[in-house]
Amino acid sequence: KIPALVLRFSCLAENLAKHIAIMSKAIFDQIEAAVKSKGAELVKMGGAVFQLVISDAGEDGKFCIDLKNGSGATKRGEGDKPDVTITMADADFVAMSEGKLDGMQAFMSGKLKISGNMMLAQKLGPILESAR
């Protein structure tokens, strides 16, 4: 009975991991669509290259948003020279993008980590809002 239980738990954990990656992917898709449709407007708002890292989603959790050059661009994976890198868990990223988690509270509680130009991270909230 124990090996069957372990196998069942393993399958549940695997399905949960796939679901986690999908939650971030949907938001990445929204951001991608917003950059394609209103890139010039977002470049005015952003003026930077943002690297998002979803800490519990592996390689699928890396997404770069270039709102510095031209009419903007996005890239799955790592960008060349991000101005700011924002790292957080998938559930927290989803909550923040839905407006349920305040970015400053997330940062102060350690749920959101920033490297690079911290001031640029504050611009991401309004950008996520306009991507919804």
Describe what you observe in this structure.
With 132 residues, the chain is of the alpha+beta class. Helices cover 54% and strands 19% of the residues. It has 5 helices and 5 strands, in the order H-E-E-E-E-H-H-E-H-H. It has helices spanning 2-46, 90-97, 103-108, 118-121, 124-131; strands at residues 49-54, 62-66, 73-76, 84-88, 112-116. It has a 5-stranded mixed beta sheet. Helix 1 packs across helix 5. The longest helix is centred in the first third of the chain and has 45 residues, at 2-46. It is globular and about 35 Å long. 30% of the residues are buried.
Write the layout of secondary structure elements.
Elements: H1 2-46, E1 49-54, E2 62-66, E3 73-76, E4 84-88, H2 90-97, H3 103-108, E5 112-116, H4 118-121, H5 124-131
Parallel strand pairs: 1-4
Antiparallel strand pairs: 1-2, 2-3, 4-5
Helix pairs in contact: 1-2, 1-5
Keywords for this structure?
single chain, alpha+beta, five-stranded mixed sheet, 5 helices
The biggest sheet, with number of strands, parallel, antiparallel or mixed sense and barrel status, is:
5 strands, mixed
* Mean pLDDT over the full residue set: 84
In spatial order, strands of the major sheet run 3-2-1-4-5
Tell me the distance between the termini.
47 Å
Q: Shape, please?
A: globular
Question: What is the percentage of strand-forming residues?
Answer: 15-25%
**How would you classify the quaternary structure?**
single chain
Question: Could you state the order of secondary-structure elements as H and E?
Answer: HEEEEHHEHH
Rounded radius of gyration (Å): 16 Å
Tally of DSSP helical segments: 5
DSSP strand tally: 5
Low-confidence segments:
none
Helicity, as a percent range? 40-55%
